[in-house]
Write a structure and sequence with these properties.
The chain has about 300 residues and is of the alpha/beta class. The protein is about 50% helix and about 15% strand. It is built from 14 helices and nine strands. It has a five-stranded parallel sheet, with helices on both faces. It has a four-stranded mixed sheet with strand order 4-3-6-5. Helix 11 packs antiparallel against helix 12. The radius of gyration is 23 Å and the shape is elongated. The N and C termini lie far apart (about 45 Å). The structure holds guanosine-5'-monophosphate (5GP). The site of guanosine-5'-monophosphate has 15 residues, from helix 7, strand 5, strand 6 and helix 10.
Length: about 300
């Protein structure tokens, strides 16, 4: 680098460091909230807020010392050198939720949509959430398919006949509805979702891909989560291992899964389903419901 450029770069670096110091000072004096600084960082990663290391931001918060900062970084699984503006979508969500609870900002209610390819385990993850996180409001869809053994009307689905489903469509009761696997119809009732969001509660929808897209069109503020298999081979194993479908049906589902996997980049956040409990926890964290394990980890 020529001498003049090097000198200019040096001056720019000093100016940037000064600008970051001003931000940190403002957080330390409680003139600015760390969460607000993070939001600025994500809107503009090249800003002083964006180029600040996460560690520095946490250190500037009142009551945070090196030990607590180190523990928090570990909890949030954020590498030591990471800059706030350089965080990926999932880490942003985690940090946002952590900062929100630490700074006493009530969690925003939000609509989270969980989708993913056939047989990735969406149903298992949402059942796990239903059974282990009673504070999460899981939307109950209406469907025209008959109940499977053990499924309870009003808990797993509202099992309705075709006429009732048609009437619900006519009355505008669905946020979205679709025919899934060319078979039965499924729809997401809108009134309970509107009521929950209005009262400050977050809602989780477990629906198919076309449903997720329809929700995003109707409610752009919804957070779309894509559940990924640990690998393609594992997805094939899960898809064929069910043993409930014919060979032709299995081949058709594999083809569908390929197309569905290609949709992952339309989603805001991806969660890998290595393990049901872990995937469920990650989804619940995204809901940022006060009182969930993520909020309880605050010190
Ligand atoms: P299952 O019949 O196995 O419970 O669900 C079949 C598929 O329907 C799953 O992919 C599930 O995500 C999807 N599904 C369940 N409820 C809804 C809904 O309300 N809307 C849409 N679009 N898909 C749904």
């Amino acid at each position: 680098m020529p001498e003049v450029d090097r000198a200019a770069a040096g001056r720019a670096a000093i100016a940037a460091r000064r600008a970051r110091a001003v931000v940190k000072d403002a957080v330390h004096r409680r003139e600015r909230r760390a969460l607000e600084v993070a939001e600025v960082a994500w809107a503009d990663p090249a800003s002083p807020e964006g180029t600040m290391r996460v560690r520095e931001l946490l250190m500037s918060m009142p009551g945070m010392g090196p030990t607590r900062v180190a523990r928090t970084m570990e909890e949030l699984a954020i590498a030591d050198a990471k800059r706030v503006g350089g965080l990926g979508p999932r880490q942003r969500e985690k940090l946002r939720s952590w900062l929100g609870s630490r700074e006493g900002i009530p969690a925003r209610s939000r609509l989270v949509v969980l989708a993913g390819p056939t047989a990735v385990g969406k149903g298992t993850v949402s059942s796990h959430i239903r059974d282990n996180y009673p504070e999460v409001l899981l939307s109950v869809s209406a469907t025209t398919r008959p109940p499977r053994p053990g499924e309870v009307d009003g808990r797993h689905y509202y099992f309705v006949d075709d006429d009732t489903f048609d009437r619900m469509i006519a009355q505008g009761e669905f946020l979205e509805y679709a025919t899934v696997h060319n078979a039965s119809r499924y729809g997401t009732p809108r009134p309970p979702i509107d009521a929950a969001l209005a009262s400050g509660r977050s809602v989780l929808l477990e629906i198919d891909l076309q449903g997720a897209r329809a929700v995003k069109r109707a409610m752009p503020e919804a957070l779309l989560v894509f559940l990924l298999p640990p690998s393609w081979e594992e997805l094939v194993r899960r898809l064929t291992g069910r043993g409930t479908e014919s060979a032709a049906e299995q081949a058709r589902r594999l083809e569908t899964a390929k197309v569905e996997l290609a949709a992952q980049d339309e989603f805001d956040v991806k969660v890998v389903n290595h393990d049901v409990g872990r995937a469920a926890r990650e989804v619940v964290e995204l809901l940022a419901v006060p009182g969930t394990p993520s909020a309880r980890t605050r010190s």
